[in-house]
Amino acid sequence: MEGCGEEEQVKLLGAAVSPFTARVRMALALKGIHYEFIEEDIHNRSELLLKSNPVHKKIPVLIHSGKSVCESMIIVQYIEEAWGNKAPNLMPKDPYDRAIARFWVAFIEDKFAQSVLGVFNGQGEQQQKAAEESVANFLLLEEALSGKAYFGGDEIGLVDISLGGLLVFIKMLEKVTNLVLIDAERMPVLSAWVDRFSEADGVKDVLPDRAKIFEFISGWRAKLT
């Protein structure tokens, strides 16, 4: 990764198993930006984290030239704007296309994430309903992706990173609950995207550890039951 001068030092406060931290690490890796990764204990937050994100007190936090940026997808957009001269472009140049990308990110952050969270926390009929909502949301994403390698076109972009950061969690959630959320027969385009995205340079090395995510989800589900 390209180095940066002392005046532009970049630090990332996060956790290796966090899907939200993974989003930021993907953006930094794709842009080739050198940074210091500081592993945080979410049960024992550091003074640096509390100082850097006094409102939410959570990861991830990007510190660039001494200034803090919080919330994963806000950080990703900041990275694109701060290092806009470095390829690839994570956001479209056209204002309309950029608005559409932000629309799908908002969809993933709000409606989609809530349905997946319902599968994670739900039981019985409640969980089944959340699974059906998740599948319906995936079908909408399948339609949005149709005809493209990535949501960003030929290259990974904002929407890919937003959804891609959650992939390991979703796949391990399927495994723990024995539910199918990404159906290869009903969603062939999205299924192919999952494989393509997961093996892409800048992505595969920063995806959360599958075994640790499986252990976390299994432990949480055991508490619920």
UniProtKB/TrEMBL annotation:
Catalyses which reaction(s): RX + glutathione = an S-substituted glutathione + a halide anion + H(+)
One GO term of the biological process aspect: glutathione metabolic process
Annotated GO CC locations: cytoplasm
Gene3D superfamilies, A to Z: 1.20.1050.10, Glutaredoxin
Every GST N-terminal domain range: 8-87
Pfam families linked to this entry: GST_C, GST_N
Enzyme Commission no: 2.5.1.18
SUPFAM superfamilies registered for this protein in UniProt: GST C-terminal domain-like, Thioredoxin-like
GO molecular function: glutathione transferase activity
Keywords annotated in UniProt: Transferase
Domain (GST C-terminal) ranges: 94-216
Family to which this protein belongs: Belongs to the GST superfamily. Tau family.
Protein name from the UniProt record: glutathione transferase
Organism this protein belongs to: Pinus tabuliformis (Chinese red pine)
